[in-house]
Write a structure and sequence with these properties.
By secondary structure, the protein is mostly helical. Helices cover 76% and strands 1% of the residues. Strand 1 and strand 2 (321-322) form a beta hairpin.
């Protein structure tokens, strides 16, 4: 627990050591995840001579979007397992082990077989790890005011973004110099580091993290496991027989994510065990959930549409050396890392009197829209004509503006989910929050496919309208939403 202070202000030095241990574990997990994401699109899209699989843009974007969406969709299963079958502490451990195995498969097995098996393992492992480690952070900061909780999660999220910076920097360089499979292998090393760090710090975790909150009967758990295996088999057969094409994967993932989210909202809003105030909070969270999903869809374009744009339209050669594409998209995470301590310090001082979650979400969306205004201007000033390329500096500025906006969405969503969840569905609301990232990932795949069929300038006009429009709408309704989100809470 955070020690009591005479004011509501909390500094980085007052964060408990368990937060830093969890943050370091999450840093290495994100190192491997973003390290893979940084080169996965290129691996699928590059031609055979350059070590890629030479898939069409639509297929590559569909796979990347569906993969990212499935990683976060699997966290619903991980949340349920961490509450009913295995304690959060051990779910994190076994999840890390499976993720490591997935990266090793990608490193040693070439072709689409390695991609399929490796990505499935990473999806399952991340599903087990992510929601449960977030729940553990929520346990550690339990009982603090909104500002202090936001600080704890802001620094936890800072670790996420540090890993998101170091991963693409490292795997991008290794892939650029020695090939894709060496990059995948480096991601496996990062995940091994996360496992070692977590095992060392496990004994310091609160006792509540070693408890299965609502254990389920073994027979029922076995039946659910068999059902899940059958579903997985059917999905595998559909993919193997070509009944579902790679280009359709992002659409399928988006539909599944929206259905899962709808089921969770209906379940919580209709449950008799959920009080009136709790239902009011859940209902107020719905527009924030949708807004965050769209926000991450715009942000995660760095792995689909923006990656294609940089590859084809930006001059990356500096002094005869070609800069790795992941280094450019990585700047988005780097800017979030640099801005987080500044913003977190302000939130720590404000306590419950600072801007609420709806206002912070609105600011993040407006900033994202403005980032793509800059991209649209760059495309107008440097049209697609022979010999004309977009200056690297302009793209870097876009990545900085877009990436730094994440501090208003990512950590706030995590903090909010652990604060407003109904008592009977605490972990499920954390899993639901993870679906904003799932929705964003699958939307980014759809946007990557849209980018292929639209001219760039009209495409970014649409993107800007979405970001600014949603941001302004949230800002206008921020007060009633904040009031509803605080119903029944002190």
């Amino acid at each position: 627990m955070l020690r009591e202070t005479s004011t509501s202000t909390i500094s980085v030095n007052q964060l408990p050591c368990t937060i830093w241990g969890l943050a370091f574990t999450e840093l290495w997990e994100r190192f491997s995840f973003y390290g893979l994401n940084g080169i996965l699109t290129l691996y699928l899209y590059f031609n055979l001579q350059d070590g890629g699989l030479e898939l069409p843009k639509a297929a590559a974007a569909g796979i990347v979007g569906a993969y990212g969406g499935s990683v976060y969709l699997a966290q619903l299963l991980g949340a349920w397992l961490g509450e009913r079958v295995m304690s959060p502490k051990w779910m994190v451990f076994w999840g890390g082990l499976v993720i490591t195995a997935g990266h090793l498969v990608l490193a040693v097995i070439p072709g689409i077989t390695g991609v399929a098996v490796g990505l499935v393992l990473i999806i399952l492992g991340t599903g087990a790890l992510k929601t449960n480690i977030t729940n553990i952070v929520g346990i550690v900061v339990d009982g603090r005011d909104e500002g202090q909780r936001d600080v704890g999660f802001a620094y936890f999220y800072l670790a996420i973004n540090v890993g998101a910076v170091l991963g693409p920097m490292s795997t991008g360089f290794v892939q650029n110099e020695w090939g894709f499979h060496w990059g995948f292998g480096l991601a496996a090393i990062g995940m091994t580091g996360a496992l070692v760090q977590y095992v060392v710090s496990m004994r310091k975790l609160p006792e509540r993290t070693n408890v299965v909150a609502r254990p389920i009967a073994r027979a029922r758990a076995l039946g659910i496991a068999v059902g899940a295996a059958l579903v997985g088999t059917v999905v595998g057969l559909l993919l193997a027989t070509g009944s579902v094409r790679a280009e359709q994967l992002a659409s399928v993932a988006t539909v599944l994510i929206l259905l899962a989210a709808a089921w969770y909202f209906i379940m919580m809003l209709s449950a008799k065990s959920v009080s009136r105030d709790e239902k009011r909070r859940v209902a107020a969270y719905l527009p924030l959930f949708l807004a965050a999903g769209v926000y991450f869809g715009l942000l995660f374009q760095q792995f689909t549409a923006i990656t294609f744009l940089i590859t084809e339209r930006v001059d990356l050669v500096i002094g005869g050396w070609s800069m790795p594409v992941p280094w450019i998209t990585m700047i988005s995470q780097l800017s979030a890392v640099l801005i987080t301590p500044v913003i977190a310090r302000f939130w720590g001082r404000s306590g419950n009197d600072g801007p609420g979650a709806p206002a912070k979400f609105a600011l993040g969306l407006v900033q994202m829209g403005l980032a793509y205004v800059l991209m649209m201007v760059a495309l107008i000033l440097f049209p697609e004509t022979p010999g004309v390329q977009i200056p690297l500096l302009l793209v870097i500025v876009v990545m900085i503006v877009a990436g730094s906006s994440e501090v208003f969405i990512g950590p706030i969503g995590l903090s909010l989910a652990t604060r407003i969840g109904p008592a009977a569905f605490k972990l499920q609301l954390i899993g639901l929050n993870a679906l904003t990232l799932a929705l964003g990932s699958s939307i980014s795949g759809l946007l990557g496919q849209l980018f292929e069929v639209m001219d760039p300038v009209p495409y970014f006009v649409v993107i800007v309208a979405i970001g600014l429009g949603l941001g302004v709408a949230l800002w206008l309704f921020r007060t009633p939403l904040q009031r509803a989100l605080s119903a029944g809470l002190r």
